[in-house]
Design a protein that fits this description.
Layout lengths: L1 H16 L1 E6 L5 E8 L3 E7 L3 E7 L7 E7 L3 E2 L3 H8 L11 E12 L2 E10 L2 E16 L5 E12 L14 E15 L1
Antiparallel strand pairs: 1-4, 1-11, 2-3, 2-11, 3-6, 4-5, 5-7, 7-8, 8-9, 9-10, 10-11
Length: 187
């Protein structure tokens, strides 16, 4: 009887260990974007303080989920005047649309990557996006926490999210590249 209880508790612990929830570590997560400025250069910016979680189901990866939220107020390009303009009604309209969210709808494991279809909501517009999230590492950190990390690059068009402001023709590119690096701590 005792052997059966030990076997059942081992089996139960193994079953629970196959699904892991990770809370995004905002200190080690970033959304960095770049956009063309009149063909002369690329302007870079970043959203800090990204929040979210992801659930990794090792047994059934298609049941895994990924969610991220970025506050527009945390946008910086290291130029206050430009940042204020970007947060205003010509671009992100922070007062009306304070957050950018991404929620997965479909996840498929492909080697060390996850092929993800998600809804991206920005500037009041929700659009489906598809991307490959490359898993970098899962393991213990020096303090005994289990961490999961990875990255992807998204290519978006501002116009798809009703951000069509243009002071002068060709001033700001429509194509925006967003580099996403995420690290989460197991809960």
């Amino acid at each position: 009887m005792r052997m059966l209880l030990v076997a059942l508790s081992f089996f139960s612990a193994g079953a629970f260990a196959q699904v892991s929830t990770y809370k995004v570590d905002p200190s080690h997560t970033a959304l960095v974007f770049r956009v063309n400025h009149m063909g002369f250069s690329m302007v870079y910016g970043m959203f800090s303080g990204v929040d979210g979680k992801f659930v990794i189901d090792e047994k059934s990866p298609d049941k895994s989920t990924f969610e991220l939220t970025a506050k527009v107020e945390n946008l910086t390009t290291l130029d206050k005047k430009r940042d204020d303009h970007l947060k205003g009604p010509d671009f992100f309209n922070m007062k009306q649309y304070p957050t950018i969210t991404m929620k997965s709808k479909k996840v498929k494991k492909s080697g060390e990557a996850y092929d993800i279809t998600a809804d991206l909501t920005m500037h009041g517009v929700t659009k489906p996006i598809t991307f490959s999230f490359k898993q970098m590492k899962v393991g213990k950190d020096p303090w005994g926490n289990t961490r999961f990390g990875g990255e992807t690059v998204l290519n978006l068009r501002r116009a798809d999210y009703n951000m069509t402001y243009m002071n002068k023709p060709g001033e700001v590119g429509d194509d925006v590249e967003i580099m996403v690096s995420v690290e989460g701590v197991k809960q």
